[in-house]
UniProtKB/TrEMBL annotation:
Domain KAP NTPase: 16-390
Protein name per its UniProtKB record: NTPase
PANTHER family: NTPASE KAP FAMILY P-LOOP DOMAIN-CONTAINING PROTEIN 1, NTPASE, KAP FAMILY P-LOOP DOMAIN-CONTAINING 1
Native source organism of the sequence: Cloacibacterium normanense
Listed Pfam families: KAP_NTPase
Length: 626
């Protein structure tokens, strides 16, 4: 099994990206700078950041080497804090205060900075937890709130806070919080920056590099607080911030925080929101760097290295060195079993031959099906390995692991088609005639006929490539293979952990109660022609599951109808599949008006009317609407 952790071992050939980032950091003329390492969820951002850290400090345990101090933070760690901005700032200062080499040099400055951050936190929470309740207590003569404040903010000099709240000047103190909060915060930010620069100068370090990972796992509020903390350091000499995140999640969080509303033309509002998000990012991140998707050859190389890592243990180091050496001269070809055979012992090569050859033969469709995403590839292999063990434990004879691997690619990339094959084989003693016909049609490239007889889903380029890939499934009894995968047939095929946060957030936006215009904006601005094929299929599949779980929820049906209205692909087919799997009497009959409305827009939805049960309210309502 393979752990889903970031690593400084470069199995993806990503060192070239890390070297580029290090080169920017080492250019003193560029500093101060903020670099965004952007990529989809699971694309390898964390591994690149780890390689950057290793390139800058090597094995220095205190993060300090050749005048450069590197601090590595996981933004998700601060998720539970009431003020993630203050938590991040305090963590940075604490690294200086406790550093064996630097701590004694900057002791006075760290004390001042700690106090500054704590008062910043106080001001940040002022309205919610101090200003309003404390003012209420003051005006009504109450004093019982004082112990609460001392407990809530005990780290901010309790005696000082108590004196301010109990003394004769308490009213002025509260007034200053309420009326001059913004002015005071600006002053504190300026003072913080000045004090931080003094600390850097006194520490005598040449460069501070702060690496922040996993921002895209944070809630929008916490993500913005982390970004606001980083903004405090803009224009502070000798600093470089490197941020790893999915840009779609970052943009969504910024939009939620700063979006504008209005009754004017909705397109103007959307355009203004887009400018706000873009301006914010451009000011904060001077160097955006987007990670490319892995190619077929890179996926095959990654798969081979993962199996070498698993099978060879400590001896994997020699394979890794050979890989690095090869990549210096050849960045494009596959690095596979043929390249490492000469450095392996016979028994080591024997261990690898079967697994690597099976996966290598399927790497093109694995690349297509899993979108070249390293995390999904690793979890795919973990499931594959677990099922391989189950085959051996169950003592199944004549079981072909390459057949299992091929079916699993479909399982992860198109669960609806995977289930359809299950339905076919379950009534035909494991050998569905439909697969035989589909493979024959695919080999002749008869795409139109496939779409006409089966569905548009079966006629996509990705699925046709899957049908044509070896091994062919014609003539194979699939019952044992579906028995091995039965753990997934009653739940999510790919598992929620394999679905990116961006797609989950989009599904949530679609099915939450919203106005019709908001739903339309979500579909047109964030879904239609905005998602890659894999993400779009995942979104439609999740919607289908939500409808099956809760057919009585009008909002889910409305999401489907809006997607149909915008002529998004494969929506009607997905909706029909869901309708066939639910009690049609639970479907709100009021939806009949929605269907007739999109029908008036020349959207061909009449074919789905036939799917509704003829004795259901929705069927009768549709047929009674003029």
């Amino acid at each position: 099994m393979w752990a889903d952790n970031e690593t400084s071992d470069d199995l993806l050939g990503f060192k070239v990206h890390a070297d580029l980032i290090v080169d920017v950091i080492n250019d003193d003329d560029v500093l101060p700078v903020t670099i965004g390492v952007f990529g989809d969820w699971g694309s390898g951002k964390s591994s690149i950041l780890k390689i950057v850290e290793k390139e800058l400090i090597g094995n220095a345990k205190d993060g300090f080497k050749d005048g450069t101090l590197v601090l590595y933070f996981n933004g998700w760690v601060f998720e539970g804090y009431d003020d993630a901005k203050a938590a991040l700032l305090e963590s940075i200062i604490e690294k200086f205060a406790k550093h064996k080499t630097l701590g004694s040099k900057v002791k006075d400055e760290t004390v001042k900075l700690f106090k500054s951050v704590k008062w910043m936190r106080l001001m940040g929470l002022g309205f919610k937890k101090i200003a309003v309740p404390a003012a209420t207590a003051y005006l009504t003569g109450g004093v019982s709130l004082i112990p609460y404040l001392l407990s809530e903010f005990s780290q901010i000099e309790p005696a000082e806070l108590a004196n301010k709240l109990k003394g004769d000047d308490a009213g002025n103190f509260l007034s200053s919080i309420i009326k001059k909060n913004e002015e005071d915060e600006i002053t504190m930010v300026r003072e913080f920056r000045d004090e931080f620069k003094k600390m850097l100068d006194k520490s005598e370090i040449e460069k501070l590099v702060v690496i922040i990972d996993d921002l895209d796992r944070c809630t929008p509020d916490r993500l913005i607080e982390n970004l606001e903390a980083i903004k405090l350091f803009l224009n502070v000499d000798k600093t470089a911030f490197v941020i790893g995140a999915d840009p779609r999640i970052v943009r969504h969080a910024i939009e939620l925080r700063y979006k504008t509303d209005g009754i004017e033309n909705s397109s103007d509002v959307e355009s203004r929101n887009e400018r706000i998000v873009s301006d914010y990012l451009e000011k904060l991140i001077q160097v955006p760097y987007y990670l490319p998707k892995l190619t077929d050859n890179e996926v095959e190389t990654y798969l081979s290295l993962l199996f070498c890592q698993k099978e060879l243990g400590a001896n994997f180091e020699k394979v890794l060195k050979a890989f690095y050496l090869t990549r210096e001269n050849n960045r494009y070809d596959v690095f596979g079993l043929g390249d490492i055979g000469s450095i392996l012992e016979p028994e080591e090569k024997s261990k690898l031959t079967n697994s690597v050859s099976i996966i290598a033969s399927l790497s093109p469709i694995i690349t297509e099906g899993l979108k070249g995403n390293p995390r999904q590839i690793k979890r795919f292999l973990n499931t594959y390995s677990l099922r391989d063990r189950l085959v051996r434990v169950a003592k199944m004879s004549d079981f072909k692991m390459d057949v299992l691997a091929k079916l699993m690619v479909l399982e992860y990339s198109s669960q609806s088609l995977f289930r359809q094959i299950y339905d076919w084989q379950s009534t035909q003693k494991g050998e569905p005639k439909e697969i035989k016909e589909l493979e024959s049609l695919a080999s002749k490239n008869s795409i139109d006929f496939i779409k006409e007889k089966y569905s548009a889903d079966w006629g996509t380029e990705k699925i046709v490539k899957w049908l044509n890939a070896e091994p062919k499934l014609t003539g194979i009894d699939l019952r044992d293979y579906y028995w091995i995968t039965r753990d997934q047939l009653t739940s999510s095929i790919s598992g929620s952990s394999l679905i990116s946060p961006h797609i989950r957030s989009l599904v949530k936006k679609l099915i939450e109660p919203v106005s019709g215009s908001a739903l339309t904006r979500t579909v047109t601005n964030e879904i239609k022609d905005k998602l890659n094929e894999g993400d779009y299929e995942t979104l439609i599949s999740l919607l289908e599951k939500e409808l099956i779980k809760a057919p009585e929820k009008t909002e889910i049906h409305e999401a489907f109808i809006e997607l149909m209205s915008e002529k998004c692909p494969n929506v009607i087919e997905a909706y029909k599949r869901a309708i066939k799997n639910v009690d049609n009497n639970q479907i709100p009959f009021s939806l009949a008006q929605n269907f007739k409305l999109i029908e008036s827009k020349n959207i061909d939805v009449k074919k789905l009317y036939k799917v509704f049960d003829k004795d259901s309210q929705i069927y009768n309502a549709i047929n009674n609407v003029d």
